[in-house]
Amino acid sequence: MSRIGKLPIDIPSGISVEIKGSHVTVKGANGTLERSFSPLIHIAKEGERIIVTRESDEKNVRALHGTTRAVIQNMVTGIHTGFTKVLEIQGVGYKAEQEGENLVINVGFSHSVNVEAPDGIVFDVTEKNKVITIKGANKEVVGQIAADIRKIRPPEPYKGKGIRYRGERVRRKAGKTAAAM
N or C, which terminus of the chain has less Cβ within 10 Å? Predict the structure, then answer.
């Protein structure tokens, strides 16, 4: 039995979960998330808990068991508290600005880069336009948007300029040195 898959998921107060076959809908104050899962995995609501079980012990079904439980847990957590990713911009003249719901990033290109906020995602720019906070209920979308923003100008190893996750360590390289003759 999967160690992750066998754990029950507690449903906090203020959140409603509907299960129709292999389709799960989670509703709460932060919005609504819904997703369909494999019919090989059984999802049941027992009181204020969600139980995930599997049909057989085949390798692909065992792999889906823990993954399904983790995704449902992330849906419940996202609707209850939400998810956040923080990006930092380092470099002289590099900055991000917020225009309405969208983000305008200037990171050394001849043009500014516009990032549109998808549904359910909120951008927040603080600390002299150097810190971008991405908030949302869907963990996958928050992580993907953060990765897409970081991909605009990843940190380079010589001066460390670029966009990085908060707490990310960039391995620095020594630059060129004068050749000894």
Answer: C
Spell out the residues 6+ positions from residue 150 whose beta carbon is closer than 8 angstroms to its own: 87, 163, 164, 165
**Terminal Cα distance for the chain, rounded:** 67
Provide the mean pLDDT of the chain: 89
- Give me the percent of the chain exceeding a pLDDT of 70: 97
What are 140-174's pLDDT values in tens digits?
999 999 999 999 999 999 988 999 999 888 888 88
Are residues 87 and 150 in contact, defined by beta-carbon separation less than 8 angstroms?
yes
Distances in Å between the Cα of 174 and the Cα atoms of 135, 155, 157, 177 are: 36, 15, 9, 8
Q: Which of 172, 175, 176 is nearest to 156 (CA)?
A: 172
pTM: 0.85
Domains of the chain by range and CATH?
9-80 (3.90.930.12), 83-165 (3.90.930.12)
Say if CB 26 and CB 14 are below 8 A apart. no
Cα distance between residue 49 and residue 47, in whole Å:
6
